[in-house]
Structure formats: structure tokens, C-alpha cells
């Protein structure tokens, strides 16, 4: 059965940021009470800016940051201090402003090829499942994160799973790689759909008018028979919640 999908539309990106912070904090309290931790997967892109309210009062003091575990949905294979690094983006815009212990943050390993970096990240996730740090999905056997925060490109890509690129069809691997990403830089690693869809909760966070056409394809009523965009394959075991501003929702 398809998971429940909730669509929130807001007048402004500022309202998206506030609603997103409240939604995340609510989930953090629930997960920490249930598991003792809150495992969160971050995208790059505009999402990190939209997370800004979490770092500000009153939200910043409404969660136990020491229980958060941070992972990366996709990452550019560059040094962690490179301007293209999603880790650097997340660190500068979010992580350095809150008190998540460094040992709870899982960036990619540097100085590996894309293939090696993907394999190493997958092995690390499997180890965290084996030692009980991460939950596992009883249905798929993949790791089950409490929350994935997913952005979407204007042509409907999510993570580094792009239209017309085979990585979107991966069934077995947890993490794979791409060396010809149409969005620069070309060398990246990315979670696969089976891992993404094993999540408890996914928030699709999409703002700005560039995204409006793909939002219409993903959520509109008349496009179901066309070849699906990557974003249309997002279907987590738990809930799916869309956060849209007026511009992103303008074609709905
Ligand atoms: O490496 C990346 O670029 C991101 O992780 C990517 O998957 C991003 O989430 C989308 O491209 C949306 O990006 P925007 O929100 O900037 O459009």
C-alpha cells in the first residue's frame, strides 16, 4: 500500500522554513523517546538554507542534539573542505551551529574514487546496522533512517539519481556512484531508491519557481502514465510529507 502523502503549501519560503523546523523537532522528540537516537539524512542544495530555523531560538533549544546522527543522501567526491562538498555546505550552514557530537556525523571518506567511496559508505552503514546504531527495515533488509530530508532538481532528480541515468534502477546496492552527473560536479556518490524508500519518514522540501513543472508532474493528477521522473519513485515505508512554497506549487 502506498504510504500516506501529506502536501503542505506555504505563501513564502520563510513559512516553509518554520514549518519544516517544527516538523523535524516533533519527529526528533518522537524518535529519541522510541530509539534513543534520531537518524537524519541530509541532501545538499537549497535544503540546507531552509533548515536555518533549527539553528535559531526558540527551535534550537527544543531538541537533544547529542542524540542526532547525521548522514548524507548524496555527496560530491571532492575534499570535505572543497566549495562543492555537501558536507561543507551542511557544516557551514547548519551543523557548526548546533551541538551534534562530531562522532555522530558521517561524511564520506576523502581520497577515494567514487566507486570506492560508495562502497566504503555502504559498508559503514551496514556496520552501523550490525552494531544496532541504525535500525533495519524488516521488509527490505536495508537500513531504516528516521528522517530523510530530500531536495529536488528542476528536472525532477533527487539525491544524485538523475533522469536517463541507470543508477536510479539499482535494486541491490545501498549506495552507488556516478561519474557523469549532469549537475556539476560530475563525480558523486548517492543513496539508491531501495535505501531511500526504506526510511520511516521522508520530507520533500522544494522551493522556488524552477521546480514548479516537476512538482506538477510528481503531484498533479494527469501525468501518471508517463515515464516517471526520479522524484516519482520516492515512496517511503512510513510517511511522505511535501513542503512547498507558493512558487514551487504554482503549477498545481
Ligand atoms: O548534490 C546535490 O546537488 C544535492 O544533494 C541534490 O540532490 C539536491 O538536493 C537537488 O539537486 C536539489 O537542489 P536545489 O535544492 O539546490 O535545487
Automatic annotation (TrEMBL):
Pathway in which the depicted protein is active: Carbohydrate degradation; pentose phosphate pathway; D-ribulose 5-phosphate from D-glucose 6-phosphate (oxidative stage): step 2/3
Keywords: Hydrolase
Protein name, per record: Probable 6-phosphogluconolactonase
Stretches of the chain forming a coiled coil according to its record: none
Catalytic activity, as annotated: 6-phospho-D-glucono-1,5-lactone + H2O = 6-phospho-D-gluconate + H(+)
Gene Ontology terms describing biological process: carbohydrate metabolic process; pentose-phosphate shunt
Family: Belongs to the glucosamine/galactosamine-6-phosphate isomerase family. 6-phosphogluconolactonase subfamily.
EC number(s) on file: 3.1.1.31
InterPro entries cross-referenced by the UniProt entry: 6-phosphogluconolactonase_DevB (IPR005900), 6PGL (IPR039104), Glc/Gal-6P_isomerase (IPR006148), NagB/RpiA_transferase-like (IPR037171)
PANTHER family cross-referenced by the UniProt entry: 6-PHOSPHOGLUCONOLACTONASE, 6-PHOSPHOGLUCONOLACTONASE-RELATED
GO molecular function: 6-phosphogluconolactonase activity
Organism from which the protein derives: Deinandra increscens subsp. villosa
Domain Glucosamine/galactosamine-6-phosphate isomerase: 12-241
Amino acid at each position: 500500500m502506498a504510504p500516506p502523502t501529506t502536501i503542505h503549501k506555504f505563501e513564502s519560503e520563510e513559512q516553509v522554513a518554520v514549518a519544516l523546523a517544527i516538523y523535524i523537532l516533533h519527529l526528533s522528540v518522537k524518535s529519541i523517546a522510541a530509539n534513543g537516537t534520531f537518524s537524519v539524512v541530509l541532501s545538499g542544495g537549497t535544503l540546507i538554507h531552509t533548515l536555518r530555523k533549527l539553528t535559531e531560538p526558540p527551535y534550537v533549544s527544543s531538541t537533544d542534539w547529542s542524540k542526532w546522527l547525521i548522514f548524507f543522501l548524496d555527496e560530491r567526491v571532492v575534499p570535505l573542505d572543497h566549495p562543492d562538498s555537501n558536507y561543507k555546505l551542511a557544516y557551514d550552514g547548519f551543523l557548526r551551529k548546533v551541538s551534534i557530537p562530531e562522532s555522530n556525523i558521517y561524511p564520506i571518506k576523502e581520497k577515494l574514487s567514487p566507486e570506492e567511496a560508495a562502497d566504503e559508505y555502504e559498508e559503514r552503514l551496514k556496520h552501523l546496522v550490525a552494531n544496532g546504531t541504525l535500525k533495519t527495515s524488516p521488509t527490505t533488509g536495508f537500513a531504516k533512517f528516521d528522517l530523510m530530508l530530500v531536495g529536488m532538481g528542476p528536472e525532477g532528480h533527487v539525491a544524485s539519481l538523475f533522469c536517463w541515468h541507470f543508477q536510479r534502477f539499482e535494486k541491490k546496492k545501498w549506495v552507488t556512484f556516478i561519474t557523469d552527473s549532469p549537475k556539476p560536479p560530475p563525480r558523486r556518490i548517492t543513496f539508491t531508491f531501495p535505501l531511500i524508500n526504506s526510511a520511516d519518514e521522508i520530507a520533500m522540501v522544494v522551493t522556488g519557481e524552477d521546480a514548479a513543472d516537476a512538482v506538477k508532474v510528481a503531484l498533479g493528477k494527469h501525468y501518471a502514465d508517463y515515464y516517471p521522473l526520479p522524484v516519482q519513485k520516492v515512496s517511503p515505508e512510513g510517511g511522505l510529507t511535501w513542503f512547498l512554497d507558493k512558487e514551487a506549487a504554482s503549477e498545481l
